[in-house]
Write a structure and sequence with these properties.
Number of strands: 7
Number of helices: 24
Structural class: alpha+beta
CATH topology of the domain at 116-285: Transferase(Phosphotransferase), domain 1
Mean pLDDT: 70
Helix content: 55-70%
Shape: globular
Radius of gyration: 28 Å
Bound molecules: adenosine-5'-triphosphate
CATH architecture of the domain at 116-285: Orthogonal Bundle
CATH class of the domain at 116-285: Mainly Alpha
């Protein structure tokens, strides 16, 4: 049952922008639910509109996770860890904005990826009888490696990497839920056990020999295979046969349509022994990946240039349309009511506006010219020139334009829209905080609270409430780097051997995130709710009665250690497709593990109690 009410489910961006929710229905005083995106093993996922977001970031995703009896300590720790996650920024990592507790649910707000997840994409290809080119696979693999490398450097493990957790946004892949499983489960061991999807789980995780960064790499190897072959790297009729294949079977090879080099990378990711398995850092240093990274970097540089140009045009058109609209309003209603003196003042104002408009065009042309020059310069000299130097040039260029503008505006004593815009954008570019939340708050202060009276009047004059007209060009250019630019920076750092990931803005952690989490007790509520959800989902699929029959049979069969062949035969008498019982098998496995972990916890508690008694006695 969804706890949050949808405010309607408009499908397109335009209609979402016109939604004006009642303040009381806002979640955490800022999010309005637009649409339910789906339901995962932890909770329900909604598309929300953030009423306080910066331009272009209105659509976000809210994951609502029922926490039941989460105790206050666990809640505080989960919130603190979520705070850490929100400080991480990488174009290949789904942006984790914030988290909060609302109506007995732990809510996580993340970036929205309109192109859905990789699992959906691969399914579409499968159905259409198509496949991904090696170029595309390699491009996504590089992005994934960069994202995983960034998180591993900060000692954060994913623990549940799978095609469903990888999202697509304008052909950039974004890994979702990094660090989230641990955050929710309270215990990292438990997180691995209960969140890992068997198809992607490493041999060491399945045989309870621990989970480390190499286990994430195994999952990435499985995803690489899936991108090429559109099927799981390790398939089986039931849960246990998949487990056996992963632990004991040989790793698969890519078909001949893919290069030996790509296959070789995949083989090194699917090494059974984690010690022999390649790390993300080493994979990024292989010749094959380095060469591909170079060419992707050049392609991306070209793309950012084109985006800028088209973005600039759109912004100019939007601003021009808005001006015309305002002028019409003034002419229609206000002018008629004015005294001659006021009319004269208006004429002067219009002349000043006209002047400002001309100046604005000149400045924008100049600005674009400079941007193009900088970009050309950048792509020609990428190897030699550091991004910092280029940024300095950009800032200087902007400063020059700003100075020219200020000078030209002074005589009219009417700064006009151009001056304002450049000032605002300029300051946005300089001091924008790196933490997205602070950045958002900052952006708002800059854009709205610094609004001049004149601008406010203009807003009032408009008929319908409107989103503030964006200064796209400037926001994109001086504001936070676009995904492509950020990706270029990360590639550049890796290629230049900057192992610290200098493009990163988040602190590197000396202590693993998992260390803090390890001290927490097991969040049994969360585990139980995960099991309950799984039970509901299988029940729905098989039907209640069949589910119960399959469940009872499998429980007894596992106790009697019946052979897989025998189990399959028995299952085929109960259901049309025995593979549909895969999750029942997994459910039984989870229930057993939960029982074991609860026994262990009770045992540990009893021992701790005994220890205390002994100590106090001695
Ligand atoms: N940031 C996002 N942008 C777009 N769609 C999303 C986003 N996050 C989740 N979704 C969609 O919402 C649905 C549920 O996602 P969720 O991650 O909760 O579950 P899942 O990945 O299907 O399963 P699990 O919880 O086991 O990982 C999926 O269809 C997913 O594609």
């Amino acid at each position: 049952m969804p706890k949050f009410r949808e405010l309607g489910a408009p499908k397109c961006r335009d209609s979402l922008n016109t939604t004006t929710p009642d303040q009381n229905s806002l979640i955490a005083k800022r999010y309005s639910i637009q649409q339910r995106l789906g339901r995962g093993s932890f909770g329900t996922v909604y598309l929300v509109r953030d009423t306080k977001a910066a331009f272009g970031e209105h659509l976000k995703v809210l994951k609502e996770i029922p926490v039941g009896g989460l105790n206050p300590n666990e809640t505080v720790q989960a919130t603190q860890e979520a705070q850490l996650l929100s400080q991480l920024h990488h174009p290949a990592i789904l942006k984790f904005y914030t988290s909060f507790l609302e109506r007995d649910a732990f809510c996580i707000i993340t970036e929205y990826c309109e192109d859905r997840d990789l699992d959906c994409k691969l399914e579409e290809l499968r159905v259409a009888g198509q496949s991904l080119s090696e170029k595309q696979v390699t491009e996504w693999l590089i992005q994934l490696l960069l994202g995983v490398h960034y998180m591993h450097q900060r000692r954060i493990l994913h623990r549940d990497l799978k095609a469903k957790n990888i999202f697509l946004k304008r052909n950039i892949v974004k890994i979702g839920d990094f660090g989230v499983s641990c955050l929710l489960m309270g215990s990292c061991d438990l997180a691995t056990t209960f969140t890992g999807t068997p198809y992607y789980m490493s041999p060491e995780a399945l045989s309870h020999r621990g989970y480390d960064s190499k286990s994430d790499i195994w999952s990435l190897g499985c995803i690489l295979y899936e991108m090429c072959c559109l099927e799981h790297a390790f398939e089986g009729h039931n849960f246990l046969s998949v487990v056996m294949k992963i632990v004991e079977g040989s790793s698969p090879c890519l078909p001949d349509t893919y290069s030996r080099e790509l296959n070789s990378i995949m083989q090194s990711m699917l090494e059974k022994d984690p010690l022999s398995r390649i790390s993300a850092a080493d994979a990024l240093r292989t010749k094959f990946i380095e060469e591909n990274m170079q060419s992707i970097k050049h392609k991306f540089s070209g793309l950012t240039l084109r985006d800028r140009c088209s973005g600039g045009n759109t912004a100019q058109i939007l601003r021009a349309v808005r001006k015309v609209h305002l002028q019409t309003l003034r002419e229609r209603s206000e002018v008629q009511k004015m005294t001659p003196r006021e009319r004269m003042r208006l004429r002067k104002l219009q002349a000043a506006d006209e002047e400002a408009r001309k100046l604005k065009l000149v400045a924008e042309e100049k600005y674009q010219e400079n941007r193009l020059r900088v970009q050309e310069f950048r792509s020609r000299n990428f190897q030699k020139v550091s991004v910092d130097v280029l940024n300095e040039r950009e800032e200087n260029t902007a400063c020059q334009i700003q100075q020219v503008t200020a000078q030209r505006n002074t005589p009219t004593e009417h700064p006009g829209p151009m001056g304002d815009q450049l000032c605002t954008s300029e300051s946005l570019g300089h001091d924008i905080p790196e933490d997205p939340q602070s950045a958002e708050a900052y952006y708002y202060e800059e854009r709205f609270e610094s609004c001049s009276e004149e601008e406010e009047e203009e807003e009032e004059g408009e008929e319908a409430p409107e989103e503030p007209v964006p200064s796209d060009t400037f926001h994109q250019t001086f504001g936070q780097d676009s995904d492509l630019e950020a990706m270029i920076k990360h590639m550049k750092n890796v290629l230049e051997g900057d192992s610290s990931g200098a493009a990163s803005v988040a602190p590197e952690r000396s202590e693993p995130l998992t260390a803090a989490q390890g001290t927490r007790g097991i969040n049994c509520t969360m585990v139980k709710s995960r099991i309950q959800r799984m039970r509901e989902s299988v029940c729905q699929r098989l039907g209640g009665e069949t589910f119960q029959k399959v469940y009872d049979y499998l429980k007894q069969a596992r106790d009697r250690s019946e052979s897989e062949g025998h189990i399959r035969e028995a299952l085929s008498r109960l259901v049309d497709r025995p593979s549909d019982c895969f999750e029942v098998d997994q459910l039984l496995y989870y229930e057993e593990l939960l029982q074991d972990s609860q026994n262990t916890t009770c045992f540990d508690k009893a021992q701790a109690g005994a220890g205390l008694t002994e100590q106090s006695g001695s």
